[in-house]
Design brief:
Length: 198
């Protein structure tokens, strides 16, 4: 891992992690979002060369693969369309927060993944380049003051990150509705310069 990549994970973890702490806890009973003719095909996760960031608990690649496969299947496996799409997920890097010092150092967990989508019908890769997603931990337990490393076990951190990764993967898929026979997203008009006047 390069120095720049290491610094990126550090900054994301300790600065932007505050945003994750304020987020809404995971809701496993969310209604299914419309996904057209989507049907989950192969759900492939590779974590063999995942890089652990600074101040991170170490995780077995097999555990990452199992957690992400389960979360993606839970999130996307209920759709019953007639058009298979295969999803490949690569674990690039992660930080599983270690116990910190409440009110002084409350590290957060973060996961960086790259996602590739394949159309089974056309046997074509839909993503010219893998889509990289940065995933923050959201937990049923508050970690704003105490920190993720104290409140959550390593397994719980991985489970929370994997669920949120699956949510972001679905969000990315729905940014491309034409893949699934859905109407394209409306084109956003450029902001009127007048709107930016004081």
């Amino acid at each position: 891992m390069t120095f720049v990549s290491t610094m990126r994970i550090t900054v994301l973890t300790f600065i932007l992690g505050l945003l994750a702490a304020c987020a809404t806890p995971n809701n496993e009973k969310e209604p299914l979002l419309p996904m057209g003719d989507f049907l989950l095909g192969h759900n492939i996760v590779i974590a063999d060369d995942a890089q652990a960031g600074p101040l991170s608990r170490k995780a077995d690649p097999d555990d990452w693969e199992a957690a992400l496969k389960e979360a993606i299947n839970d999130r996307l496996g209920s759709y019953d369309g007639d058009h298979y799409f295969h999803i490949g997920t690569h674990v690039d890097a992660y930080v599983l927060a270690v116990p910190g010092i409440p009110l002084v150092a409350t590290p957060k967990s973060v996961l960086i993944i790259s996602v590739t989508v394949f159309d089974d019908r056309t046997r074509r890769k839909l993503t010219e380049e893998p889509k990289q997603l940065t995933v923050f931990e959201r937990s049923e337990k508050s970690t704003f003051i105490i920190g993720s490393g104290i409140r959550n076990s390593k397994a719980a951190q991985m489970r929370n990150l994997s669920r949120n990764a699956a949510r972001l993967i679905q969000k990315y898929l729905l940014e491309n509705p034409e893949w699934f026979g859905l109407p394209p997203l409306p084109v956003r008009e450029p902001d009127d310069p007048a709107d930016n006047r004081n």
